[in-house]
Design brief:
Number of strands: 9
Distance between the termini: 37 Å
Number of helices: 9
CATH topology: Rossmann fold
Strand content: 25-35%
CATH architecture: 3-Layer(aba) Sandwich
Largest sheet: 9 strands, mixed
Oligomer: single chain
CATH class: Alpha Beta
Shape: globular
Structural class: alpha/beta
CATH superfamily: Vaccinia Virus protein VP39
Helix content: 25-40%
Order of helices and strands: HEHEHEHEEHEHHEHHEE
Amino acid sequence: MNELEFYEKVKNWEFSMINYTKECLTDWDLYKLLELNANKDSILLDLGTGGGEKVIRYFPDCKEILATDFSKEMINTARENLRKSGRKNIEFRQMDNLNMNTPNNYFDIVVARHTCTDAQQIYNTLKTGGKLLLRGVDKLDCWSLKMIFGKGQAFDDTKPISLVDYENIIKAGFKHVELVPIHVREYYKTKDDLLALLLKTPILVDFSEIEDNIIIDNDILDKYIKENTTEKGILLIRRYYGITAIK
C-alpha cells in the first residue's frame, strides 16, 4: 500500500469516535496563530486538508479559503462536510503539494498540516509579506511504540523531518523562520481506542516499504499497553513541530 492508497482508504480525519484525552506541554497553537494573523480580507491556502474537518471548524471567516489534498476520497469527504456545515467561503480541491497549480503571489497565509510540502512552491504562491504556518509530525513521535514494533513513520530517517523542513524553508528565501518542538501526552481509555488510532493513522506505517495491509501484532501491542498504562489511560507520547516564516 503506497501513501496515496493509504489516505484514499482512510477518507477522513474524524477522530471523535476515539476516546482519549491530551495534555499539551508546549504553548504553540496553529489555530490561535492563524486567528491572530488573518483578517476579513485574508486569502488562505490550507495544504493537506484531509476531510476538511479542521478547516471548517477552526479556520476564521475571511475573504477566501482554498483547502487542498492529494487524495480524491479525502476531498469528496471534505465537500460533503462543507455542504453540511453551511460555510460559504471555502473551496476544496484535489492537488499534489509537490506539484502545486496555485497562482503566484496570491495568498496571504499558507497553512500546512501534517503533510509533505515544497517550500519553494509555497514561497512562490504567497504574497510578499505573506506568512507560512506549518505543523508537522516529527521522527520521535510515538517513539517508544515504534521502538517496540521496530518500524513506523520516519523510523529509519537519518535526519528529523522538522530539520529538513526548516532548512528547506530557509533555502526557499523565507525570513524570520522559527522552529518550535511541540510535546503532547495522549491518554487512550481502552486498547480499542488506541488500536482505532493506529489503524487510521500512519504511525506504524513506513511508506518506503510496500504493505498490502496495516497489520498490528496483538502481542506486541499488549506488551506496550502493559508498560504504558497509567491512571489516566494508555500513554502515547507525541512529538510534533511548528514552523512560522514570512516571505
